[in-house]
Design goal:
The complex is a heterodimer of chains A (440) and B (222).
Chain A: H1 2-44, E1 46-49, E2 52-55, H2 59-63, E3 73-79, E4 82-86, H3 88-92, E5 102-108, E6 111-123, E7 128-138, H4 140-188, H5 206-254, H6 258-292, E8 297-300, H7 301-318, E9 322-327, E10 332-335, H8 337-354, E11 360-366, E12 372-376, H9 384-395, H10 406-419, E13 423-428, E14 434-439
Chain B: E1 2-6, H1 10-22, E2 26-30, H2 33-42, E3 47-51, E4 53-54, E5 57-58, H3 59-68, E6 75-79, H4 84-92, E7 97-100, H5 105-118, E8 127-129, E9 132-135, E10 140-143, E11 146-148, H6 152-163, E12 168-169, H7 171-178, H8 187-201, E13 206-211, E14 215-220
Classes of the chains: A alpha+beta (440), B alpha/beta (222).
Chain lengths: 440, 222
């Protein structure tokens, strides 16, 4: 855009000077022709009589020099190089060749003049006399014309520049505007949106859009492939684990010998541990991805938590735990429901793990002063010496690799809260039990 | 309860079948969606356990068709996929619930009961013995005509005993059915639950006998 306008400005300047130069040349030529004609007619009028040079300055010689600006005319007549009549300073101003008219631009009495010198040889009875005439004219009319031409040339230049600038502005906004629209539509897309771009674009941009579309297509394909791969990998790992676990449970029913039973129990525990760790690691990876491209939907936090509580109720029931939901009946919030559900689920999972049988897990959802979800249990609480380290660890951002197990649950909750601009807070209640507050 | 298991992995299917049979359930097995449709068309099931990845299609397609037809047999999806998005997807498609593989059979049973309780008009299977009427799905117990409020673990303990009157259950065996495997269970805890059950059953003709060093047995006193 700037380059285009700069180019137009340079072109306009060049145009201005070219026109002006040409005009100067043409005008100068005109003046020279008149001066030439005038001096020729003066020389024609010169005669020699008895050794005396007679020169009647013809009226026409001066009338043809008349201009609208009342330019002054100077002349000097020389005989064999000796001044005869006119303005002497004109004759001494230059050294002229005797033949052929010679033009020169000089100054007389502070005014720029165009001077012509021409000579003629007069042949008398027995002598030869060289008559030389200098004729000068000021350039007021010429400079007036030049001024006018310059003005016109400048107007032309400005006009050209304006037109070029407007055209380049139009051209760039037509293409750049389309590019801008394309950029906006690329930027506005959610992370899951990998459809090709179908908005109409100028013909020149079609190759760009089609190569963009083919890139998006390949990206979509490779994302689908890696998603399929993860799903397939999870499927291949979990299915045999499920087989082993089901057999182990069935075997445990039949076996009576206590040491064998203990072995089966350890086996089941190990399977649960590994599948939980694998699940949380996959969840954590998914959450990191989603948190980078947070998609906010309008949701009701209370509804989200109550759905989750209902879904977890059968597991809580197995332990004779009850889940109590308190707080505001509606807490509208704009966030990623999948992430929030996962975070709260991890908090409730921990509470169910540590809460003793026949106790309750209290979940409080509140909207003021800021949206908060608090999950409390009646378990042993966080060890006093660890509450500090846990909290500071989350403050400086936890490392997923050193906190597998239930710790990763808190890390997930922390990551989700941070992605929504909040954090988690751990504390022990005075009456016993742990409380984790997820604020958004 | 009568289950239909739709699962293509033969090993896993066998394991689930053996575990479910052992818990006293009736269970049929379909290895693909075609078989599953045939089973559903001919048999009455309380619940369908549906795998997602099957050789002849996606379990969720079956779920959609199943929901589109008039059959309202509840479906619990067994998913081996990784978590969140898939779970939500299957619930949106009309699954009543889901469990992630590998799953705890106790959890599966708990979820099955919860799903059945939500459905009105499920086929009631009550156990009546010695003045006790027990509905394991609803978790209702009446002793001598009086309704008794029980906690979940008490219910499951009672269900165990009622399914096999006269059989001896060791404390460890009972513990495995009542507690999850990562709970630390003291033998004392079992005694507490047995004690509560005895109080509930007092007005009936049933009693729980302690056999020193062996465990417990439910007896029906004539």
């Amino acid at each position: 855009m700037l380059t285009l306008i700069g180019g137009a400005a340079v072109l306009a300047l060049i145009l201005f000077f070219a026109v002006r130069n040409y005009a100067v040349q043409v005008a100068q030529q005109g003046q020279d022709t008149i001066l030439d004609a005038s001096v020729t007619s003066m020389l024609d009028a010169a005669t020699i009589q008895d050794g005396t040079v007679e020169l009647d300055l013809p009226y026409a010689a001066f009338s043809m020099l008349a201009t609208s600006a009342d330019d002054r005319v100077f002349y000097a007549i020389l005989r064999d190089g000796k001044f005869l009549s006119g303005y002497e300073e004109l004759a001494t101003a230059g050294n002229f060749l005797p033949d052929s008219p010679v033009f020169q631009t000089s100054q007389i009495r502070g005014a720029p003049v165009r001077t012509i010198s021409a000579s003629r040889t007069l042949i008398g009875a027995n002598e030869r006399v060289d008559v030389q005439i200098f004729l000068a004219q000021t350039q007021d009319a010429l400079s007036e014309t030049l001024d006018q031409i310059s003005r016109n040339a400048a107007l032309l230049g400005v006009g050209f520049f304006t037109l070029a600038a407007v055209l380049s502005f139009w051209a760039t906004s037509a293409t750049i505007g389309q590019l801008g629209k394309l950029t906006t539509s690329v930027t506005r897309r959610g992370p899951q949106d990998l459809r090709p771009f179908t908005k109409p674009v100028p013909r020149e941009m079609v190759p760009l859009v089609s190569s963009l579309n083919s890139l998006v297509g390949r990206l979509d394909q490779s994302l689908t492939q890696s998603e399929d791969f993860i799903a397939e990998a999870a499927h291949r790992v979990r299915t045999p684990l499920a087989t082993v676990r089901s057999y182990a449970e069935a075997t445990l029913q039949r076996v009576d010998k206590e040491e064998n039973r203990e072995a089966m129990r350890s086996m089941i525990k190990a399977i649960d541990e590994s599948s939980r760790a694998a699940g949380q690691l996959l969840d954590h990876a998914m959450i990191t991805f989603r948190a980078d491209h947070l998609e906010r939907d309008a949701i009701d936090l209370t509804e989200l938590v109550s759905d989750l509580a209902q879904r977890l109720a059968p597991i809580a029931e197995m332990k004779d735990l009850s889940i109590a939901l308190r707080g505001d009946p509606h807490v509208p919030y704009s966030g990623d429901p999948v992430l929030l559900q996962n975070a709260v689920r991890n908090l409730i999972d921990n509470a169910m793990k540590y809460g003793p049988a026949e106790s309750s897990i209290e979940i409080t959802v509140s909207g003021k002063p800021k949206p908060q979800i608090m999950v409390c249990d009646h378990g042993p609480g966080f060890p006093e010496n660890e509450i500090e380290t846990l909290t500071t660890r989350f403050q400086r951002g936890a490392n997923a690799t050193d906190s597998i197990g239930s710790g990763l649950g808190l890390t997930i909750a922390q990551d989700v809260a941070m992605a929504h601009g909040g954090g988690i807070h751990l504390e022990n209640r005075l009456e016993g039990g742990a409380c984790v507050t997820l604020s958004l | 309860m009568k289950f239909l298991l739709v699962e293509d992995n033969q090993d896993l299917a066998n394991a689930i079948l053996s575990r479910m049979t052992m818990a006293g359930h009736v269970i049929d097995h379909a290895a693909n969606l075609g078989d599953a449709s045939a089973f559903v068309a001919t048999g009455q099931y309380d619940l369908i356990l549906l795998d997602i990845m099957l050789p002849d299609g996606d379990g969720r397609t079956f779920l959609k068709q199943h929901r589109a037809s008039d059959l309202d047999t509840p479906v619990i999806v067994l998913t081996a996929r990784s978590q969140v998005s898939d779970r939500i997807g299957s619930l949106d498609m009309g699954a009543d619930d889901y469990v992630t593989k590998p799953f705890d059979h106790a959890e599966l049973e708990a979820r099955s009961r919860a799903v059945l309780r939500r459905k009105s008009g499920y086929a009631k299977t009550t156990i009546e013995i010695g003045g006790v009427v027990f509905d394991p799905v609803a978790g209702h117990l009446t002793v001598g005509g009086e309704e008794v409020q029980m906690r979940n673990r008490e219910l499951r303990l009672l269900e165990l005993f009622l399914n096999a009157p006269g059989q001896i259950f060791s404390k460890n065996k009972l513990a495995d059915r009542l507690f999850s495997y990562d709970d630390d269970v003291s033998e004392n805890a079992i005694e507490v639950y047995v004690g509560r059950l005895r109080r509930h059953l007092k007005p009936s003709d049933l009693s729980i006998t302690t056999l020193r060093g062996l465990g417990y047995r439910l007896d029906h006193d004539e």
